[in-house]
Amino acid sequence: MKMNHATRGFHEANTVTAVAAAPNGEIFDLEGYAAVGMAGNRLQVLTPDDTIDMPHGSELMLLPDRHPIVFNFDTLDFEVLTRNPFEPGEPILAVGAFNSPGHVNRLSCAYDDSSASSLLPLFSYGAAGFLDQGFRSAAICVDKEPRQDLRQMPLHRVKNGVDQMRNKYPSNRLIRHIEHCALSYGCPAGKNFFLKRYEAPLPTAQACNARCLGCISLQPDPVLSACQNRIDFTPSPGEIAELALEHITRVKHAVVSFGQGCEGDPLTAFDVIEPAVRQIRDTTDKGSVNMNTNASMPDKIERLCRSGLDAIRVSMNSTQESHYTAYFRPRSYSFQDVLASIDRARTGDAFVAVNYLNCPGFTDTEDEFNALHRLIKTHDINMIQWRNLNYDPKAYLKKMEQVQPLSAPLGMGTIIERLKKDFPDLIHGYFNPPKERYRKAGL
Ligand code: SF4
Q: How much is the pLDDT for 60?
């Protein structure tokens, strides 16, 4: 098989067994074959050392029209399996892991897509296998906080919370919208508001000034479907402040966040957000007011920080302008505006996290790592939130390769460890931290 790989020294005892799926979705392990992960063109046999027990809340995803790449212990080589070796004639399909929040993909699942005609749905596809009666994920735990642990979010308690808020705020349209997100989409942020836990969402924006390839709220690509609909009204500053203050006054170390999956970019709704932030801060200095954003408008970021915004989380698939532009496809701003927003926020003493959309084989390339290293150093970044890019990995890598040939992958584990060594104060995680955590650290 032409892709670059190492095959020496592998035998069944020190590897993880391959898994695959039948067309009906049944998932099974393939004795005699090892599971394989990929980072760009690099194939890697999965071992117990570079995998973890599949995290609770993760899902195994069948990859339509894609066949698994496995390692065959008879031939001691990689191969594409199109038929089930144990059920002659039965087609088999590749399986990937959609790892639960707090876990970043070390490797994508390895598959052949030569017979595929359309993109994969908007999920991430981590490498997975089977070992000792359980599924394993080639993932790295970056955040242990149970903020989105579904076991701690029983539906009956969410419904109780919805009833209480209906009685207390019968005319707040934004709380009604969050109700729908929590009960229909199962949105963990929406549920947490009604459960009085951690972080509450403040979706506000119907528009966006970017056209991300993998946008989950408004999909430009007819082949792909957005995961949820965008909010179809603009809440008033009063409705926003009411929801935020309800959460801040009830939850210890509360976080409230603009910029959710069910909206465009919050900076496009600045005119209602800025007065809402002022209302919140005129009432209390408790809680952390955060904005998840593409950070495209430095002036507005500066004014929001002056009004009391505590933190921004800046989404990036790449810290290299050309690769960023190829994915975000900005309409009315440039990567330089994003960097200027980060500097204004830091000057305004706001906490800055990068929402780093990771895809092994691109994120861990030498060029991308060096650019990330420069960004952290030059722009005083406080945190990297390691997230898995929800987009067809092979299609994405092709797009990034079109911008510029990709350098060799260093390994996700390697780049995270190197950053920890080079930037000891840099926070690594997944969730927006409360200010009590980063102010204490002097950030
Ligand atoms: S910035 Fe967010 S809302 Fe805008 S296109 Fe990208 S993913 Fe969609």
A: 98
> Is the model's pLDDT at 357 over the cut of 70?
yes
Structure tokens at 1: 């098989």
Beta pairing partners, 200: 256
Q: Which atom of ligand 1 is closest in space to residue 315's alpha carbon?
A: 1
Backbone angles phi, psi at 267, to 5 degrees: -65, -20
The residues, ordered by sequence, that sit 6+ positions from 418 with a Cβ below 8 Å of its Cβ are: 369
Give the C-alpha separation, 381 to 388, whole Å. 20
Q: Is 336 left (phi over 0), alpha (psi -120 to 50) or beta?
A: alpha
Is the per-residue pLDDT at 293 higher than 60? yes
Decide: pTM greater than 0.70: yes
Atom of ligand 1 nearest to the CA of 293: 1
Triad 266, 268, 269: Cα angle to 5°: 70
**Nearest CA residue ID for atom 8, ligand 1:** 215
Nearest to 142 by CA among 440, 438, 435, 420: 420
HEC string of 111-166 equals EECCCCCCCCCCCCCECEEEECCEEEECEEECCCCHHHCHHHCCHHHHHHHHHHHH
CATH dotted code for 150-440: 3.20.20.70
Using CA atoms, how far apart are residues 203 and 158, in angstroms rounded to an integer? 19
Tell which residue, 137, 139, 127, has the closest CA to residue 102. Answer: 139
List the chain domain ranges: 5-141, 150-440
Ligand 1 pocket, Cβ-based, cut-off 6 angstroms: 208, 210-212, 215, 217, 264-265, 294
Phi/psi for 254 (5° steps) reads: -70, 150
Measured CA to CA, the distance from residue 40 to residue 319 in angstroms comes to: 18
Query: Across all residues in the chain, what is the average pLDDT?
Result: 95
Given a cut of 90, whether residue 433 has pLDDT beyond it is: yes
- For a substitution probing ligand 1, which of 122, 206, 208, 355 has the most ligand atoms within 8 Å of its CB? 208
The pLDDT of residue 437 is 85
Nearest Cα neighbor of 308 from 381, 248, 251, 263 is: 248
Distance of alpha carbon 288 from alpha carbon 357, whole angstroms: 23
| 336 CA from centroid of ligand 1 (Å) | 18
Q: What angle do CA 50, 52, 56 make, to 5 degrees?
A: 155
Q: Which residue has the CA at smallest separation from atom 7 of ligand 1?
A: 215
Percent of the chain with pLDDT over 90: 91
